[in-house]
Design a protein that fits this description.
Helix content is about 45%, strand content about 15%. It is an alpha+beta fold and about 100 residues long. It has a single domain, classed as Ubiquitin-like (UB roll) (Roll), CATH 3.10.20. Helix 1 packs across helix 2. InterPro entries: DUF3861 (IPR024476), DUF3861_sf (IPR038194). This is DUF3861 domain-containing protein.
Amino acid sequence: MNKRNHQYRITVTHLESAKESAPIQPELQIDIENHDDIFAVIEKIQQKQLFDDPQQATEFGLGLKLFSEVLLKNRKHPLFDEFYPAFGDFMKKLKSQ
């Protein structure tokens, strides 16, 4: 991992299945790096009050930073050909609100 980036450990614990017969999945834990302070990003999104539910601001901020870091590292991947320019526009719009 690059020491110039923030280092995080993310743990996902499956608490309940949508179907009673479905098994609870084992815990997932990954170590990641991100060029941004994820906690600061989440705080900014919460302050903007974009969503009625404050928890959704946290979910959005975390998901956005996880996704955008992968996107940046793989911006030349054919999967992102059409999406990458639109994502830039989206980020400008988000930051302007």
